[in-house]
Prior knowledge:
It is a single chain. It is built from six helices and three strands; from the N terminus they run H-E-E-E-H-H-H-H-H. It is globular, with a radius of gyration of 14 Å. The chain has a three-stranded antiparallel beta sheet. The protein has helices at residues 5-12, 60-73, 78-83, 86-92, 101-121, 127-130, and strands at residues 25-31, 36-45, 48-57. The chain has a single domain (5-121), classed as Sufe protein. Chain: A (Alpha-Beta Complex).
Amino acid sequence: MIYSEKVMDHFMNPRNVGEIEDANGIGEVGNAQCGDIMKMYLKINGNTIEDVKFKTFGCGAAIATSSMATELIKGKTIDDALKLTNKAVMEALDGLPPVKVHCSVLAEQAIKSALSDYYRRQGIDPVPIVGEIVDSDVHH
């Protein structure tokens, strides 16, 4: 399987790995059967994502897409993060092999799951804003 240089860089040197102790939005997607699990931590102040970290258990593409997704939303507004698509993550990584596209879908879902958690903590129903988080059950 051939990966782009950007995918390899984000796999070998992932950005924003870890947890945020005082995160006000945490989301987890994926499943152990498929093998890819992503947990996303957000620190939101006002309408800005001040910090974002992730912990991913999975293949190199899952780690790379998590890393790139965090880079694409860090310092951005909640609205910007809500607009982030798996396609944008893949484009930022100069593409993914077709059998690894589901990793970019998980990255998008992890961000939306964390944003849903943020809204729930504010006492706001996240579904009208974020939409339903459909856990991807795509296998390798």
